[in-house]
Amino acid sequence: MQPILEIRGLTKTYKGGFTALKGVDLTIRKGEIFALLGPNGAGKTTLIGAVCGLVRPSGGTIRVFGEDMQANWRSLRARIGLVPQELATDMFEPVLRAVSHSRGLFGLRPDPGRIEGILKSLSLWEKRDEQIRALSGGMKRRVLIAKAMAHEPQLLFLDEPTAGVDVELRRDMWKQIADMRDRGTTVILTTHYIEEAEEMADRVGIIRQGEIVMVDEKEAMMRRLGRTEAHITLREPLLVVPESLSRFPLTLGSERTVLTYRGGDGSGQGKADVAEITKALTLAGIDYIAIDQHESSLEDIFVDLVEGRVAGAGA
């Protein structure tokens, strides 16, 4: 199946000399939810801006729906939705009029039924006659999503869609985004909330200093880079790690009462190793009084990649 978005060698250098994107390659599949993670200044918003025609690239190519974005910008842009990070909209407009107007901007005929459906799906229908400025921050962000959906985009960018939204509203918006995918929309989102990517994304990409350092299926990334860390508190200090445990990646703390294991590959091997270690300790007559075990989360992997503690693989 042809990818819905294909980016090759994309670069962006601003007038002051700052390079925001450094030869980015990225392929997005039709119908997936793709989460792009990265720290502030990593290039997430610049990348989105380049695809949506808001930022002029310095080099590289962008193909959307199999067509060259630069050559066919006007027709392709009408098929792309964008929910920006900033709440940039006419705050004095009533909700219904603002969302309806967005549809007209892309040359589509009025469709009151569709607009009503969008507003109801986002719990905005009861607010349709209120000015946007009177809404809460979470509701304002929903209006941005409604405006982006009004022209029926096939590819939807969400730049920090739940920033500043409370947990309850955030989970409600996750459901709305999943519903968009179920209706056939491909969704690309950037987020600071790692649990958002864990909850929703089919694949995850990590960008650091303008470069894609890894793209993978969420589960594959967890298997490949996940780790188990366990701290075993001993009843009595040890001088050295026993020979029977030498095959495991163990270290002995400075006070000689805590054995630390760091290993595994996210597939369960780490848990199995810890179980073997405790059996070996018992057979050796070494008592322990506590075990503190932790499995890597996507956030742990993200931090390791961003800080360069593990190597990634772009795609």
From TrEMBL:
Residues 5-234 form the ABC transporter domain. Gene3D superfamilies: P-loop containing nucleotide triphosphate hydrolases (3.40.50.300). One of its GO terms (molecular function) is ATP binding. InterPro entries: AAA+_ATPase (IPR003593), ABC_transporter-like_ATP-bd (IPR003439), ABC_transporter-like_CS (IPR017871), ABC_transporter_ATP-binding (IPR050763), P-loop_NTPase (IPR027417). Keywords: ATP-binding, Nucleotide-binding, Transport. SUPFAM superfamilies: P-loop containing nucleoside triphosphate hydrolases. Signal peptide: none annotated. SMART domains: AAA. It comes from the Bacteria. PROSITE patterns: ABC_TRANSPORTER_1, ABC_TRANSPORTER_2. This is ABC transporter ATP-binding protein. It comes from Novosphingobium rhizovicinum.
